[in-house]
Structure formats: C-alpha cells, structure tokens
Amino acid sequence: MTTPPFDIPEYLAVVSSPIGRLELTSEGHTVTSVTVEDDGALPHDDLPRRSNDVLDEAAAQLCEYFDGARRDFSVPVSANGTAFQRAVWDGLSLVPYGSVISYAELGSNAVGTRSGRAVGRAVAANPLLLLIPSHRVVSASGKVTGFAGSQGVKIKRWLLEHELVAA
C-alpha cells in the first residue's frame, strides 16, 4: 500500500448544511477536519469522495445538530497542532451547547493565559469546526468576531442563534 501525499486525506465526505457545504476528512478511524465552504469552494473539491464509517457517523451527527436533535458530538477526533493549540481546543470542547466564553476566559481556563490574541490564533487554527465548538468564543465585550472563511461572522452568528445564544 502506498502512502498518499500529506495534503490528500485518506477519506473525504461532503455534507450539505444550513451554513453551506461541509467537508469532512478522516485518517483511519478518527475525523481530522471539518471545513465549511468559502465562496462556494471546499479545500478538496477536486478530489473524489471516499467515505468510511467514522465520516458517515460524523455526517449523521452533524445533520442531527442542524436539526436541533443533538447538542454534543461523540465521534473520535484527532487534530494536529502545537501543545498550546491542543490545550485551547480541549478547553473549547468543554464549552457547553448554548453557552459562550471570551477568548481571555478560555485562555485562563485552558492554558493559564489571558492573552486573547494567542488564544484567538489557536481558536482560528481549529481544524474541527463544530465538533470542537470554536463558534462559542466571543470577544470580552460579547461581540461576535472572526470565524471560518469570508462569511465567518455571519456563519458564527447563525450557529449561536441556532444554539439560542444571545450574543
């Protein structure tokens, strides 16, 4: 068996959602990325789809989330990042459905720093949108700021409203 190039995922699925198409990738039995389309394009639009059981389950759980029938995800995930990024992402995973947290508060809880910029960069690098809920992080003033792609703030607002968060 040959090893595919680094940037080509082993498994790839695309799911339609109210916020646009979502690209799901996995290596083996863990989901490695969830990406929302940006300006109508996904990172691997040119590749053939090849799903597996974990992507099928992730797709089903995402559909349940958008239907309002799911608040938490139980698919196995694996994200490459620095120790700091992984600590921030672990902290994100603890933010409950329907809640928000500030970048500074997340940093203080997850990694012992209140540096909103450093935490913001780690949040922005989250490869597992929705499964690791980076949309639940807001500015210290409660303002909805940056998210994925050119429509990021609009998508983030939609997700927060979907979860009935007044932000």
Strand order of the biggest β-sheet: 1-2-3
> Which structural class matches the secondary elements?
alpha+beta
State the end-to-end CA separation: 50 Å
Anisotropy-based shape: globular
- List how many beta strands DSSP finds: 5
- Stated plainly, the CATH topology of the largest domain is called Arc Repressor Mutant, subunit A
In terms of DSSP E residues, the strand content is 5-15%
Question: Can you give the helix content as a percent range?
Answer: 25-40%
Largest sheet: 3 strands, antiparallel
Ranges where pLDDT stays below 50 over 5 or more residues in a row are 1-5
CATH class of the largest domain: Mainly Alpha
Mean pLDDT: 90
The ordered H/E elements are: EEEHHEHHEH
Name given to the CATH architecture of the largest domain = Orthogonal Bundle
The radius of gyration over CA amounts to 16 Å
Determine the number of helices (DSSP H or I, runs of at least 4 residues): 5
CATH homologous superfamily classification of the largest domain: Winged helix-like DNA-binding domain superfamily/Winged helix DNA-binding domain
Count of individual domains: 2
EC number: 2.1.1.63
GO molecular function, one term: methylated-DNA-[protein]-cysteine S-methyltransferase activity
Organism: Paramicrobacterium agarici
Protein name: methylated-DNA--[protein]-cysteine S-methyltransferase
